[in-house]
Amino acid sequence: MLGGVLPIPKSRLGPDALAGITLAALAIPEVLGYARIAGMPVVTGLYTMLVPMAVFALVGSSRHLVVAADSATAAILAAGLAGVAVAGSPRYVQLAGTAALLVGGLLVLAWLVRLGFLANFLSRTVLVGFLTGVGIQVAGGQLAQMLGITAGGSHTAVAFIAALKAFPRTNVAAALVSLGVIVLVVGVRRLTRRVPGALLAVVGAIALSRTVDLTRYGVEVLGEVPHGLAQLTAPSFTLADLRLLLPIAVSMFVVIVAQSSATSRAYAASYDETLSEDLDLVGLAGANLSAAFTGAFVVNGSPTKTQMVDSAGGRSQLSQLTAAVVVLLVVLLLTGPLAFLPIAALATVVFLIGIELIDVAGMRRIYALRREEFVVAVLTAAAVVFLGVEQGVLLAIVASIIDHLRHSYHPRSSVLVKSAAGHWQSIPVSAGARTADGLVIYRFGTSLYFANAASLAADITTLTQHSQPPRWLCLDGAAIGDVDYTAAAVVIRVHQQQHTHGTRLVLSNIIEPVRAQLDRYGITTEVGSDSYFGTAGEALEAFGRDPRE
């Protein structure tokens, strides 16, 4: 408790509080947009910055992570509830609360069984592709309302084509409002990121709508927004609803764990701070459970809001608590003017949020450095756009695991030789490659398991099928952190095959846990306990002392 707030020097009270006010100014238009993405009443976006934000600030360990409404989880929620209930209806809000309840329960479970490692199963490459896909979907879904037209379509591509077909029916006034918001937000952003351009645009659009009465020109406005705190609500606990929402909750849970963990780790590393991912899971669970009962929806660790606080000079969760107080005042006193907010203006704010999620620079870097990973990122983005966010999450997980397996399936193994200066260096595995006359020290590039054990056998065949087999074959395990049952059987078979050809199998650089595994598998009995050497150098020296040499 309070690990994200305390200790805080008196000299930090003012800067952190000011950063919190800045966060509220910048994030209020954003969370209104996220509520719209989620299909929720817009005021519920503000609710995510009240109790849920405060709960994480008080319980979590990260001093920087901002937890509130987020575009990725909002898009997953909307995709999952589409066709189940009318967006914004009481039934829809109830189901959104149930989804938050399930997410909170999954986070508690993750804390109990220490599942924080799941964050590592979404690679940076896949996250870039996923968020780019979400950005395209979010931005594309706003075009019709930015133009003041009605266009159907449940998927991004269909909705985009429908909007293009309906383009001749564009409401000029709505389009001008959207254009004005873009000019103002982008213009302010080019000057400085510290001024809330989105907030200025929303305030300006409200003032214009109230002064000119834009409804006379066919511009739709938000309408009455409830003021005051949300009443405590009860999510649905029926078995049918829980079954319906569980897959959606699992998708959001994976994104929350991955995105929140990655963000909190990055900022903790930047400031050389300690971090408890387990305690952050508790904080995220508490934030989502509180969202379920306070009229909000699923919340997530937000990289954009975290950056807002950091750029404004905030260095503790006091900034987030201050922001929650500011939002509380807005909810109690200032929701009235929101009724005049043009839908086109809000849609444009959401559109710009989506555009910012499209990580063109990140995709370019991946393309320049790792072409095969770029393909994975593009496929993930395409899945989100053409199949849906929920399916995109599942594909992202599968793509990350396949990418990991691909690396370990083809390890960068090598033969160790001495350089002219007497240092070890690696050369490629090839027929006839030798460390010394009669000796091969072969370093396998990763842990040994069922999928890559055949690679080990193939390499050894390549190294020993030379007309003159080596007298010693040393398997160097500096990169081996684990050996599974199938791989152990392959090692035993390799030993037996080499033994028939007069080659002795020895091992070096085997860490203690792996040595214990080899003992259990019977490999030590096969090769003999005197066949283990602490380093490759020791194996080389022992080979030189072998009386047969």
Account of the protein in words:
There is one protein chain. The protein is mostly helical and 549 residues long. It folds into 2 domains: 10-140 and 226-335 and 357-405, no CATH class; 414-545, Transcription Regulator spoIIAA. It is built from 23 helices and 8 strands. It is elongated. The relative contact order is 0.14.
Helix content range = 55-70%
Shape: elongated
Tell me the count of domains.
2
Strand order of the largest sheet: 4-3-5-6-7-8
Largest sheet: 6 strands, mixed
State the secondary-structure class. mainly alpha
The whole-number mean of residue pLDDT values reads 88
Distance between the termini: 67 Å
Number of helices: 23
Number of extended strands: 8
Low-confidence blocks of residues: none
Strand content: 5-15%
Cα gyration radius (Å): 29 Å
Give a brief rundown of this model:
Strands 4-3-5-6-7-8 form a 6-stranded mixed beta sheet. It has a two-stranded antiparallel ribbon with strand order 1-2.
Q: Key terms for this structure?
A:
Transcription Regulator spoIIAA; mainly alpha; 8 strands; 549 residues; 6-stranded mixed beta sheet
